Structure formats: C-alpha cells, structure tokens
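Much of our argument rests on the idea that a fold can be written as discrete symbols. In the encoding step, the backbone of a single protein was reduced to a row of integers, each denoting a local shape. This step matters because it turns folding into a mapping between discrete strings. For completeness, the protein is quoted in full, as a sequence line and a line of structure tokens:
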Amino acid sequence: MKINRLYFSPTNSTQKVIELISDAWEGEVRDIDISDPHKEYAEYTFASDELCLVGVPAFGGRVPTCALEHLAHMKASATPTVLVATFGNRAYDDTLLELKDTLSRKGFHIVAAIAAATEHSIMHQFGTGRPDAADKKELQTWAQRIKDALEQGTPLPEVEVGGTRPYTPYTGLPFTPRAGDSCTLCGTCAASCPTQAIAADHPNTTDAERCITCMRCVALCPADARKINAMMLFAAGKKMKKACSQRKDNELFFREAR
C-alpha cells in the first residue's frame, strides 16, 4: 500500500506526529508538504488502494487558510484517509470538522481522525515537550488499531468528528514576527514562507496582512533574527494561561466496521 503523508507543519510539530502515526504501516511512503505555495496541487490524485494521512495545526481553532486552498485542488477516489489536527495544549475547536468537510468534497473517505496535543508553537511554556512518551505510546496504539481495522478488508464507515457549523470565526493573532538588526538578508525566511508574506528582495520586512504567524521564519532563521515582540508575547501568555496550563488529552475519532 502506498502511504501518502500530507502535512502543513511550519515548525515540524505536525510532521513529526504524522510520521509517528505512519510508522504503523509498511509500504511506499510519499511526503507532500502542503505549505509550499509554489506546488501544482491539482497534479495530486489518490486511488482507493492508497492511504492518506493528513495533518494540520489548529490556528485559532481552524485549518490554516492556505493549507485548505492547497488541499482543495487535490482529488481522491474514495481514498481511506486519517486526519490529524495538532493543537498547542488549548483546543482544536473546528479544525477537524473543517478539514473533513473540505476533503470529503474532494473524494477522500475519512475513516479516522486524531487530535494530538503538541507544544505551543509560539508560547512554548504551554504543552512543553509534547508529544511526550505517554502521547507517543497512545498515538501509536491508535494507529495500529486503525491499521488492523483497514486490513480486515471490510470498508470502514465515514467517521464523525468534533466541531460545530458554522465554524468558529478566525480573527488572527495580534502579533507578527519581525526581523531584527542581526538579519543577514540571507532570504531563508522568504523562500520558506507559506503565505509569501516576506519579499525575496527585502527579507527583513514582513507583510502583516499576509502573515499568519505560523512561526516558520522564526524556526528557520540561521541568525535567530526573527522574533515576536517580547512584551506582546508576555501579555498573550498571561491571557492564555488559564486555558492552556492544564494538560489536554489527545482524542481519537474512529468506528470499526460491523
């Protein structure tokens, strides 16, 4: 079986979870980074004898818009699909539902979905170190359960996931990463920005209208020159402390065939 791993993973957290889950399967693996704004996503099609694992982070309880746009160009033919929404120890809200709605319309057959808690990509004091050993064991157990059910040969039912319609409005974040004086104008951030919010000829600038605060530029900058305003980050951390401090559980949505 061909295993297709599709992920929007600016800081690698979602990719690592997808890779962990995919270890349950054996076969040809194809990685598809759906954060690349330059790919021709309409060229991707998936057959009924393949498997798709699709992972995205929850941004304000929603799927990042650019990831949805890229996925909407793909086509599948009743391809068994496992959804993964990673969240920074707060909540995933309507992320799985929005992802399921989008992919179901394109021919993907959603057989399971997982919400996986990870370290917060901006405020690292929340969910620090997750997924930890206990998380990994749980996710691997769930992946094996899904694999075993698929190998029974009986078609699995379309799974229901958490979330509400209409989706929670996404209001964005009140801060944008900026380049400091140590920026060397190397262009690494511009080349990797999912929304092309950083101009290649002026990589020390950021278009706040385009930026989704995915933190890829911060994670990749070789000079550690890109940061979020420390005072704004501190204030945001204080505001989110109540919602994010308590350990959140991972969740599995799955129904075996009867």
Notes: The two ends are 23 Å apart (CA to CA). The CA atoms of residues 53 and 235 lie 36 Å apart.
